[in-house]
Write a sequence for this structure.
């Protein structure tokens, strides 16, 4: 049976993540800080629950007439002298941007934070064309220096401590080691500023695209999005079709819930409104502005009655912060630019079937649904994707252990109808595992059960386990008591 290399990688990487207690400590502490900040600003301007309901209603409405809104947006952008390109796939979007950069003679690209550029693997393609690409968001800059992808959609370097970053700067820039965030930020700022001034091509993502006015909105905290979109002569904004909202008056609802849930702020420091290239008499702004609107699986998601809800996501990252799986294994283990709960539901569509194992990487605890600012029912979508995957006639892309697990579950379901047999087997099991048990727990088991106890303890079955109160030796199966 064909096994996806990414699935195999995922199992290995999640085992490594689960064994990395230092990683878990960093993720737990970042997550606790985030929840603390969120609690402080939750109801700052307007009641949070009202904003959530309004934002969801706007997104539902927008998804219902996406075709019409995209036409309206495109007309407005074109009126503002933007060049709009529709990309059906990641390949088309990537090829368009690389070709454009090459034709413009670009040598130095500065990029604002954009998960969609990660989705289309833009950086390696630009680099293959001999063009230098610099990530300018501080977290993205740090992970780029380490040669690794972001591990969180909002906090790309969440897996690193200030000491790790101090060592990185010391090694890469030959500066004295310091773990002080202010000094590290100042060092990065000086270097990034030089790069902005020599950049000839800028790229950012888009948080919201307002159809009514033809305005692209980019929110950020460092000013790098503003500099990437205004200093270079040519600027490209890359957005998924789902980023469109109908009206300018819809925007404040999203700005409020995004800042609160993403970073625990009342509002992000910079809210950039991009409407077109510089006009005659303007002092700054790009000479050319291109907007690449990408589908890449989104239309198919829209046509699926359950999955379409995932297109409401505003990429706040809150579901990652509360997810017990993400907090246990870290973002890199997912082997997708979109990790965590949201990654598990969008990756199979946006990244491809090589990530079809991700909907299974969840405990279905529901914390993601509770925290989501637009109330996306992630557990329901996960179950839907699992069902689709297991109903598919094609062989699934994860290792055959899953089949063994399913066969085991079927066998257990049959046996569970006979409580006496279950008790008898439990008694046998208790005798067999007795040599491995200590204080009621089994810490390690020999093969083929060794994987069970690699990262968790197993409660030892107890001989003579009390009978269920309603059994009294009669069959539960027949409903008699
Ligand atoms: S699914 Fe909800 S919580 Fe998760 S990133 Fe998207 S909007 Fe935020």
């Amino acid at each position: 049976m064909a096994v996806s290399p990414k699935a195999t990688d995922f199992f290995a990487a999640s085992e490594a993540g689960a064994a990395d207690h230092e990683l878990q400590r960093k993720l737990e502490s970042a997550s606790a800080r985030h929840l603390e900040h969120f609690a402080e600003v939750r109801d700052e301007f307007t009641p949070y629950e009202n904003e959530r309901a309004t934002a969801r209603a706007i997104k539902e409405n927008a998804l219902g007439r996406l075709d019409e809104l995209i036409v309206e947006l495109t007309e407005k952008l074109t009126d503002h002298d933007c060049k709009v390109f529709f990309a059906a796939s990641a390949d088309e979007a990537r090829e368009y941007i690389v070709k454009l950069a090459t034709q413009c003679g670009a040598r130095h690209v500065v990029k604002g934070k954009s998960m969609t550029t990660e989705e289309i693997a833009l950086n390696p393609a630009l680099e293959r064309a001999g063009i230098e690409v610099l990530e300018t968001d501080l977290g993205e800059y740090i992970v780029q220096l380490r040669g690794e992808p972001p591990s969180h959609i909002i906090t790309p370097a969440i897996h690193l401590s200030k000491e790790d970053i101090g060592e990185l700067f010391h090694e890469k820039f030959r500066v004295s080691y310091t773990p002080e965030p202010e000094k590290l930020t100042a060092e990065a700022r000086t270097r990034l500023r030089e790069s902005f001034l020599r950049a000839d091509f800028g790229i950012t993502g888009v948080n919201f695209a307002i159809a009514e006015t033809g305005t692209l909105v980019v929110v950020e905290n460092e000013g790098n999005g503003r500099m990437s979109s205004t200093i270079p002569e040519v600027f490209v904004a890359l957005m998924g079709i789902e980023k469109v909202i109908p009206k300018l008056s819809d925007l404040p609802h999203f700005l409020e819930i995004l800042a609160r849930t993403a970073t625990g702020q009342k509002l992000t420091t910079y809210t950039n409104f991009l409407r077109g290239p510089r006009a005659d008499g303007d002092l700054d702004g790009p000479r050319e502005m291109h907007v690449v609107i990408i589908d890449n699986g989104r239309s198919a998601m829209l046509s699926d009655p359950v999955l379409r809800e995932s297109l409401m996501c505003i990429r706040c990252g809150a579901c990652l912060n509360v997810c017990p799986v993400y907090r246990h294994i870290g973002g890199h283990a997912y082997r997708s630019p979109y990790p965590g709960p949201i990654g598990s539901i969008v990756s199979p569509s946006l990244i491809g079937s090589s990530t079809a194992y991700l909907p299974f990487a969840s405990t279905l605890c529901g914390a993601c649904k509770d925290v989501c600012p637009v109330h996306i029912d992630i557990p329901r979508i996960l179950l839907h994707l699992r069902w689709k995957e297991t109903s598919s006639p094609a062989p699934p892309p994860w290792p055959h252990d899953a089949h063994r697990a399913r066969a085991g579950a079927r066998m257990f379901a049959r046996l569970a109808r006979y409580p006496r047999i279950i008790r008898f087997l439990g008694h046998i099991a208790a005798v067999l595992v007795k040599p491995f048990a200590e204080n009621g727990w089994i810490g390690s088991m020999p093969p083929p059960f060794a994987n069970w106890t690699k990262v968790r303890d197993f409660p030892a079955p107890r001989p003579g386990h009390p009978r269920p109160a309603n059994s009294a030796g009669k069959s539960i199966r027949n409903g008699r008591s």
Q: What stands out?
A: The radius of gyration is 26 Å. The first strand starts at residue 83 and ends at 87. Residues 466-481 have pLDDT under 50 and may be disordered.
